[in-house]
Request: fold
Amino acid sequence: MRGNFVYLSLEPVTNMIYSLGISPADFLNGVPAIPNQLLLLNAESASDAEINPHTRLQTLTGQTQIRRYLLGKHEHPVKWLDYTHGDDLDFLLPNEIAELLYLAHMDTHIRTPFYAKLQNDYAYLTLRDGFYKTYYRHLNSFDHVLEVSIKRHLRAMHNNRWVFARPLAISDVPQEILLQLIQGLADGMIIAFDQLVERHRIYVIPVRAITHPERQATWYSQEEVYADSREVASLRYDLTTREWALSIHDNQVFSDVMDLI
Reply:
């Protein structure tokens, strides 16, 4: 699905972020540390992959190999969990392996996808048309991922508007703004960079709330996504002072999730 925008929704019980516009590079550049070992839930032809005899699933080891794998092109959807120790996989019970297979096949969890035996921090599922489901053991690990993505999208819009301008130096998004945005994820939210306007050297980026989240499985175009949304806030970046601000037009949208995260 084309378009310079970020779509996000949050399932707070399992810390699952459903997203469009958050790239694998955003994830890698935003998480506190790149995992050192991955359990691949889909068969892959990666030359670095090995077979774990107990689960009969492939594994990858080493941050360099994992970065190359996650940023590469793939014939099949990329689906994985991280894990801490090599022999942790050997202690998984048949029902736990079955849960992992269900997660990969159905793109959803039976129970929480975080396992004490694996000590995994993430579960990562590539879906259709650029959508992802990412589970975070610690939801605050998503804060910097979102910030990295926001800065990337804004930089892309600036470069498209001013082809011969210097690269835009963007300051960090304040933590309180990131938390306010995440509070608006109950039914889904769009950060609409392609609706950006410039006013007195301030970029104004509409933030839109999803009005019909039940239709998300039927979205196949940007127009369909935007048709099911309304503007509830605006994210602002001042090019002169390099300061961020968030103007909220509908406070109710940004309080629904507060008690759940």
Remarks:
- Residues 134 and 150 are 17 Å apart (CA to CA).
- Residues 141-161 form the longest helix (21 residues).
- The chain is about 25% helix and 25% strand.
- Helices lie at 24-30, 63-71, 94-106, 141-161, 175-183, 222-227.
